[in-house]
Amino acid sequence: MATGTLYLIPCPISDETAPWDVLPAANRAVMDALDYFIVENTRTARRFLSKAGIARPIGELEFRELNEHTAAGREIEELIAPLLEGRSAGVISEAGVPGVADPGAPVVGACHRRGIRVVPLVGPSSIILAVMASGLNGQSFAFNGYLPVKPPERVKAIRFFERRALTEGQSQLFIEAPYRNVKLMEQLVQTLGAQTRLTVAVDLTAPGERIETHTAGEWRRCRLPEMNRRPAIFIIG
């Protein structure tokens, strides 16, 4: 029996941006053909599909969740079991693209091990958008996820990534929980060398989007962007 296909479906980064404004029409054609979705959150996935105007009634779709509570092994195998029987599935995370700073990788890995085709669809990634708009090195960059929460450890991490950015010329990207953005920004400005460049990209694709690159010394002399509880990408370069 032929296996199904796993489609990785991008979701708008901002709730304020309509899905059809940022996603290709071809993506909706794929979603129209699916009745099984592996999602980070069922409620938001249902809302996204409804706003996208898919052909099938939402009530006829099956949703299974993949998030930080999903155990490796048996639970992942249960998620891909329908694909082994020939049924295709779509993976939808909360925002951006599945598998990149969002759930998806365990299911994708399991599909590769079982010979199931994996198809990534085109859509918005805050990481790539931030690099594009930063003016920093886009030939060599690294996404480092979250920095430590405790201030001493975070300062150590900031200095480590600053050294890497300056000695290797590699842009260093990271994110923070939106409610901790302000403290992180303040610590970055205080810790980085005066000539080290820092990009802050806030609310990408939303009406209030703000993207700025300055040296740390320049950031110390200007008003810091309003970023409390707003998604942001930080880049040292």
Outline:
The chain is an alpha/beta fold. It is 37% helix and 21% strand.
Structure description:
The protein is an alpha/beta fold. Helix content is 37%, strand content 21%. The protein is built from nine helices and ten strands. The protein has helices at residues 19-22, 25-33, 42-52, 74-84, 105-113, 126-134, 151-168, 181-191, 216-220; strands at 5-9, 36-39, 62-65, 89-92, 117-120, 141-146, 171-175, 197-202, 210-215, 232-236. A five-stranded parallel sheet has the order 3-2-4-1-5, sandwiched between helices. A five-stranded mixed sheet has the order 6-7-10-8-9, sandwiched between helices. The termini are far apart.
Give the helices and strands, then pairings:
Blueprint: E1 5-9, H1 19-22, H2 25-33, E2 36-39, H3 42-52, E3 62-65, H4 74-84, E4 89-92, H5 105-113, E5 117-120, H6 126-134, E6 141-146, H7 151-168, E7 171-175, H8 181-191, E8 197-202, E9 210-215, H9 216-220, E10 232-236
Helix pairs in contact: 4-5
